[in-house]
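User: My instructor asked us to take a sequence, write out its structure as tokens, and then describe one feature of it. I'm not sure where to start. Here is the sequence I was given:
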Amino acid sequence: MVIKVFLASSSGSTAIKKKQQDVVGFLEALKVDYAQLDIACNEENRMWMRQNVPAEKKPSNGIPLPPQIFNEEGYCGDYETFFDAKEDNSVYAFLGLPPPPGSKEAGQAIVENGTHAEETNAEGNLDDSIEVPVEERNGHAHVEEEQAADEEGEGGEEEEEEEEEEVAAEEETADDETTEGETAGDEVAVEEEEEEEEEEEEEALEETDEVTEETEEEEEEEEEQEEEDLQSEEEEELRQLEEEEEAEGQEEEEEE
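Assistant: Let's start with the prediction itself. The structure tokens for your sequence are:
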């Protein structure tokens, strides 16, 4: 199973970038296999994310903001639910993955099931034999998370409104670029059609010229033939006249 994290690589929102880095950094720290899918540069990723985020998880404008997390085709949640899972030490359950042996989450599951109560002390905490991340033992990670939660709580509503406006603006820009691309494609198609029409007209003119030349040649040949026929007829008539004159001359001589 591969965890899919939908991100916006070119987001102008500092809050969105911080949330994305928080999710990616935590998954890398846990060594969880995941794939980053960019919705800013890939229209298919953006449409798939929108269609597969449950309606109840979408904001009022219907546009879910990154980061959004999926396990294959199954929806895990957004940043807020991811953050809550971190606070509750239930990230693996949030991701739909079995916790690795020795992890804090696995230890909590054992305690809840009551199968290894001896591994807990009187206060209900895991003993030192269970591996706990160094950052959590030192308390740094928890302090940083609390500080981040406080900062987000102060301007949460304003940031969400700004994020929604920025996402809407980015989508409008993407739509405009798509429209410009389609318009450019239409112009190219029109130019190609005009060129084809011009070529067809030129070919038609050339064919007409060829037909005209052939017709003129045929007419010239016919005229020449007619002239030859006329000359032959005239010569024949002259020959007949000469023969008649000779015959008349002979008759006159005989009469004398």
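For the description part of your assignment, you could build on this observation: The two ends are 140 Å apart (CA to CA). Try explaining in your own words what that tells you about the chain.
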